[in-house]
Structures are given as C-alpha cells and as structure tokens.
Amino acid sequence: MWIAYKTIVIKEILRFSRIWVQTIFPPIITTSLYLLIFGGLMGQRIGDMQGIDYMHYIIPGIILMTVIQNSYANTVSSFFLAKFNHSIEELLVSPVPYWVILLGYISGGVARGFVVGLGVFIAVSFFVDFEIDNLLITIVTFLLTLFIFFWLDLLMRYLRSRLMILRLFQLLS
Length: 173
Description:
84% helix
C-alpha cells in the first residue's frame, strides 16, 4: 500500500520537475511582476496598513495564493492527463485503495505548491527585507492551507456532480 503511495508521489514530483520551465518558473515570474506593479508602485500611494508597510502586508497572501493555485493546477492536470491517456484505469483496477491513490496525487500537488512557494519566497526576498518570526507555524499554515483548499475543491466537485444529477431528474420529471 505505501509502495503505491510512494510511487505515485515520486511520479508526480518527477512530472512537474521535468518541465520546471513550465510549472515552477512562470508562477515565480508572475508573482514577482505582481509584487513589483501592485506592491511597489501602488503600495507607495496606499501607504501603511495599521503601521505595516503595504508590501509586507500583501506578501503572505500573494505567496499563499500562488501556492494554492499551483497545488490545485498540479492535481487537476495530473488527473486530466491520467484520464486522457487512459492510465487512470490501470490505477483504478489495481489492488490499491482509492484513498491511497488520492493521497498520492494530493501529496504531489502539495510538493509542487511547496516548491513554488519556496521559489516565490526567495524571489520576493530580493525586493523586500522581511523575516519569519516562527518557522514551524509558517510551515504548518502552509501545509494546512494546501490540504484544506484541495479538500474543499474535491467537496465542491462532488456536490456539483450531485446537484447536476438532481437537476437532470427535475428536468426529466
């Protein structure tokens, strides 16, 4: 069971690291440009937010936004590619529990989100001097945000499919 989990996670990490120019580098550049435009230029006009510089105020949100977006994009694209290539069928008929498969894909998305978040953090540190007060709380918040948003997305997709079935029955009756 854990061999299957480890294999899926390694496959996912290798998938996004092979094409790092497309999966890791663009979010770092986009976020850096966003911070330069909105943080640097508009931040001077906005001023301080309750004694905190605007750039320092938006950096945690920008980093988490990028992490959430890339974690979600990795998991969705992995499922889509597996469905498109018909390789998901091989996983589903294997003697691996579904929760292990799902956890493997989630962990791959968390890994990509973590790598992109770390890259954005390093890129942002060139623009602004800031420090992390508590590294443990930062990492726990980071990982919990990734898992919570993935599960919320999964729940919304499940509910959406159920609501579509209910609407279909309403239309047919």
